Amino acid sequence: MENMKSELIGLLCKKSFKYSEEPVFKLVSGSMSRFYVNCKPVTLSPRGIYLVGHLIFERIRGDQVGGVGGMTFGADPMAVATSFVSEIKGMPVKAFSIRKDQKDHGIIKWIEGDLEKNERVAIIEDVVTTGGSTIKAIERARAEGLDIASVTVLVDRQEGGMENIRQHVANVSAIITIEEMLDCYKTLE
Questions:
Q1: What does the CA dihedral 75, 77, 78, 79 come to, rounded to 10 degrees?
Q2: Is residue 151 a contact partner of residue 122, using CB atoms and an 8 Å limit?
Q3: Smallest Cα–Cα separation from 146: which of 61, 40, 60, 66?
């Protein structure tokens, strides 16, 4: 798994990470940052899907969950990749997606996927800064009657988000930190 993680860091560093000495990147929170991370070019690529699916599956396999997902759109390709790997490994875990806006027609619900009330699930997120989006995903999953076993983050920007999330779920981990991304970036300069 360590080789997969190193390869994923390299892919993210080349395709998803930008750095500036001055804080020029505006974040969702409105604050400015020296780092920009957009995981989608990697999580939507064939190799990225393979690596992310395996790494997240290995992270959640001991959590005894029936589902894996998070806030659309960042978590969607990661959830599908993880679900696919789980089937290959003989330990099927269903993918689900949490809407940003509640559906206003048909059956009104926050979550799309084949989940049962009280099902144990893992919430995933591509990038965490303050944790706000992940906390919203946790709250919506709980509102739909799901039991949150864990939260796994692909990239932790190390700006307090993980600690904020831990106030809602105890089992929280990151696969990659911004520090590891910076170390990789420095080797490319």
A1: 80
A2: yes
A3: 66
Which of these, 131, 170, 154, 161, lies nearest to 81 by C-alpha position?
154
Architecture in CATH for domain 2-188: 3-Layer(aba) Sandwich (3.40)
pTM for the whole structure: 0.94
Query: How far apart (Å, rounded) are the C-alpha atoms in residues 141 and 146?
Result: 5
Is residue 168 classed exposed, middle or buried when 0-12, 13-18 and 19+ CB atoms within 10 A define those classes? middle
DSSP letters, 57-91, are: HHHHGGG--SEEEEETTTTHHHHHHHHHHHHHTT-
Using 50, 70 and 90 to split pLDDT, how confident is the model at 102? low
| Tens of pLDDT, residues 20-69 | 899 999 887 788 999 899 999 999 999 999 999 999 999 999 999 999 99
Rounded to an integer, what is the distance from CA 69 to the centroid of its chain?
8
Specify which residues 150 forms β-bridges with: 122
Residue spans per domain, the chain: 2-188
Query: In this predicted model, what pLDDT tens digit does every residue of 157-166 receive, in sequence order?
Result: 999 999 999 9
